Amino acid sequence: MNCPWVEVNRHMSITDHSVGRHSLEEALQTLLSVEEHDTGNHGLRGKLLSLEEKLNSNQLYLAVLGQMKRGKSSFINALLGADVLPTGVLPVTAIITEIRYGRDAEAAILYTTGLREGIAVRALADYITEAGNPGNKKQVASVEITYPSDFLKGGIVLIDTPGIGSTHSHNTRTTESYLEQVDAGIVVLSVDPPITEVESRFIKTVGNDVPKLFFVLNKIDVATGDESSHISRFLEGELNRL
User: Fold this and answer.
1) How far apart are CA 232 and CA 238, in angstroms?
2) What is the edge-to-edge ordering of all strands in the sheet holding 184-190?
3) Is the pLDDT at 233 greater than 80, yes or no?
4) C-alpha separations of 148 from 104, 121, 159 in Å
5) What angle do the packed helices 14-35 and 44-57 form, to 10 degrees?
6) How far apart are CA 61 and CA 77, in angstroms?
7) pTM to 2 decimal places
8) Are the C-beta atoms of 20 and 28 separated by less than 8 Å?
9) Contact of 86 with 129, CB cutoff 8 Å
């Protein structure tokens, strides 16, 4: 699950980063030229072109992942410093939602038909929750949000994903199909209970698709200090095992 390149290069200077970027660009061009003569791997060129586009965009796609009701949307709101995403007692996020930096708070709905529609951020619940859009009857493909958060200024694109293990199986499928586009993931766990069999299976799967994973223990305010410490040690052992 670890990505040595990230570990080695996280303290790079700007000059070193430019050298690393140039090497990556050269490697991609070499692979693309080789792929032109390889007729046996039809899906490779698309993946290489996607990598090239991502490298040119100077953006890091950071997905917030986890089981339903772990507090993923609330966690993203905390990172942004504002209640941008809807939250609630029932499972809410049913659609992939990308949040990137912008001077104004704006939202756009991308439909499966290819149509794009701008909406007010306060109207998001009508499109990205099971209550507002049950079974995705409105045929929303994804949602894009811009928000003036310092956390996003450096090129981070935060992605809120549907909860896995939901009673709505399409939520899990939507999340799993998106993982190839993710550069790093934050898996949100919580103290109630610390980890489930569904989460264990998901972590094993996501570890093969996402280069770098981080883990967050949420809702520690519902446990005592001793209980939180005990749960943290237990989770560390489980995650190392997985």
Assistant:
1) 10
2) 116-119, 106-111, 140-147, 97-101, 156-160, 60-65, 184-190, 213-218
3) yes
4) 6, 13, 16
5) 160
6) 17
7) 0.74
8) no
9) yes
